[in-house]
Amino acid sequence: MPDFPADFRWGVSTSAYQIEGATTVDGRGPSIWDTFAREPGRIVDASTGDEACDHYHRYAEDTALLAGLGVSAYRFSVAWPRIQPTGVGPANAAGLDFYDRLVDGLLAAGVDPVATLFHWDLPQALEDAGGWLNRDTAARFAEYADLTAARLGDRVKLWITLNEPFIHMSLGHGMGVHAPGRVLLFDAFPVAHHQLLGHGLAVAALRARTTSPVAIANNYSPVRQAGGSDADRAAAEAYDALHNRLFTDPLLGLGYPDAPGFDPAVVRDGDLDVVAAPIDVLGVNYYNPTGIRAPEEGSPLPFEIVPLDGYPRTAFDWPVAPDGLRELLLQLRDRYGDALPPIQVTESGCAYDDAPDADGRVHDPERIAYLDGHLRAVHEAIGAGVPVTGYFVWSLLDNWEWAEGFTKRFGLVHVDYPTQRRTPKSSYTWFRDLVRR
C-alpha cells in the first residue's frame, strides 16, 4: 500500500438505528424505521432495530475496539428521536446524556467524534405531519441541530448534516423499499429540496454553536452507459443528474440540474442561497457504479438500471469496482473545479457472509481485498490532484442493515447477535496495521 499524507483521517462509520438498540430507553420516541420494520413484509428476516448491536449499553466496549483499531476518527449518527422524541420541543436531556458519554469516551481514547445529525431515522410524529414532503420539517431539523450542537458542539470535531439524501429520497419515498415506504417516483422531488433546505438551515445553526467544520455525506455512483445509442446516452445523463448532481450542484451554488422530476414550484425565493451555505468538507459515500441504458417503451422512468458484468460481486450482489471510486473522485474534481471543498470518503465497504471458523476466528479476505483496492484508488485520485483528506470504512460492526435486517454483514468486527459477542475479523487486523504504518 502506498503512503498517504501524514494528516490523512482514518476512520470507521456506523449509524444510530443500525447499532444502538434501546429504542424505548431514556425517553426516545419512535422513528419511521421503528414503524416500517413492524410492517409485514418490509424486512427480509422480519427483524427490527429494537436491540440491533446494543451499542447504547455497550458503547464502552465498542470504543475500546476503536482504540484498538487505532483510527483517528469515528463517524456515528445521533438519533433525532432520542433528542426530540416527537421532533419538536426542548431536548430530551437523557438522550443527550448518552451522546455526552459517547463523545467523552471517544476523546479519552484519542478518537475524534464525527457526528451525523440525520441518518434516516426521522421522528414518526414528524412523518405523521408530512415528513420531508412538508417544508416545515426543514425548520424542525435546524432546531434539532441547534439543540444537539448546544450540548456537543465544543467536542465534536466534524459535523455532518445529512447522510445520503438521494438514497433517503429514492428508496424511502420514490420506490418505497425503505422507510417511510412511500411510492412517489419523481413526485418525490420535494423530499430532495426540503432535505437540502434543512441542511442549509442546519449549517447556520451549527455555525452559531461550534467552530468545528461542517459537511454533508452524499452517495455517489459513476454511471456506466450500456449501449451506444443517443437514447442510451440521454438515459445515462438523466440518471447522472438525478443521482450525482441533484444533491451537489445546488450545494456548490450551481442551482438544480435538469434532473428527472425537478419541480421548481417547491423552490422559493432565497432557498438556493440557504442551500448553498459554504461547507468545509464534502462527504463521499461510494459502493459501486451503476449501469444504465434507455428504458423500454412505456416505462415510467427515463432510464433502466442494468447489471454490470466483469466484476466480482459482494453478498449484496454489488459489483466490486475500485476503479469506480477513482473515476468518481476525478469526476467531482473536473465537474466542480475550485468550488469543490476538501473531500472525505465517509463510507466505503462491502457485505460478505462472514462466520467464525472452528477456532472462533473470522477470516474475510474478500473485505481486505476490497479495502486494499479502494484505498489504492483514493491514493491515485490524490496523486491526480483531488483533495481527499480522509477515508471511513463502513462499518465498524456487523449491524442491522435496513430492509435486509441481519442478513448482510459489513463490519470489521463480527457480531453474534444472540449473544452480542464482538469478534474482530482479519480485516480489522489488516486495517489496524495499515493505520499504524
Explain what the structure shows.
The chain has 437 residues and is an alpha/beta fold. It has a single domain (9-436), classed as Glycosidases (TIM Barrel, Alpha-Beta Barrel). The chain is built from 14 helices and 13 strands. It has helices at residues 16-19, 32-37, 55-69, 80-83, 93-108, 124-128, 136-152, 165-174, 189-207, 230-245, 271-275, 322-336, 365-383, 426-436, and strands at 9-13, 73-77, 112-118, 158-163, 214-220, 223-225, 281-286, 290-293, 304-306, 343-347, 388-394, 413-416, 421-424. The strands form 3 sheets. It has an 8-stranded parallel beta barrel, surrounded by 6 helices. The chain has a 3-stranded mixed beta sheet with strand order 6-8-9, with helices on one face. The longest helix is centred in the middle third of the chain and has 19 residues, at 189-207. The protein starts with 8 loop residues before the first strand and ends with a helix. The relative contact order is 0.14. The model has no long low-confidence stretch (mean pLDDT 98).
